[in-house]
Write the structure tokens for this entry.
Amino acid sequence: MTLQLTDITLTYPDGESRLTALDQVTMTAERGRLTAVVGPSGSGKSSLLAVAATLITPETGQVLLDGTELTRLSARERTRVRREQIGIVFQTSNLIASLTALEQLTVMAHLGGGRLERARDQAMELLDAVGLADQAGRRPHQLSGGQRQRVTIARGLMNDPGLLLVDEPTSALDSERGAAILGLLRRLTLEREVATVMVTHDKDQLAHADDVVEIVDGRARVLEGV
């Protein structure tokens, strides 16, 4: 699956004027590749992720997912695309305190109308892929920060998305655990042939990416040779 953003412009009200969050941004994220979007706070990274996730509709430009123009879809159709084709990993784990690691994943399939038996098998496969099969019965308070983040990544992959959007996945982790998470993301991107877009402010993380897009003041450029 390929994500193509073309000439994306997005503005927000700012008093009597408008603030430009994204200024004619163009970028591509391809299947089996990890694309890092890097930039300082307030540069437009999170806005870009929200547009790619169909959570915000830009004023101008196209958002194509395998050739389908997402900005033309109805709200119901965009919800279906998010549920069936897009996985989202938020900056904080947002795990449900009362659910085990296994249940965090199976509830996603339940919301999508999937069969429980198949969902459990798939959830265990994903927990094994992120190295947590032996922690399937533990709840969030029984897991370390790195383990919680790995559960979140597994949850984002639960419905076999073609596009995975990841927001600052290591912000709450130390450098060692952060490096492990980034290595995991890259491995799963390749093994599962997912197009992964990861937002980060940390340029030290770019070594884990296949492609790098820098955003400054809402404008994007592809970085070569990072």
Summary: The domain at 3-223 is CATH 3.40.50.300 (Rossmann fold). The chain has a mean pLDDT of 91.
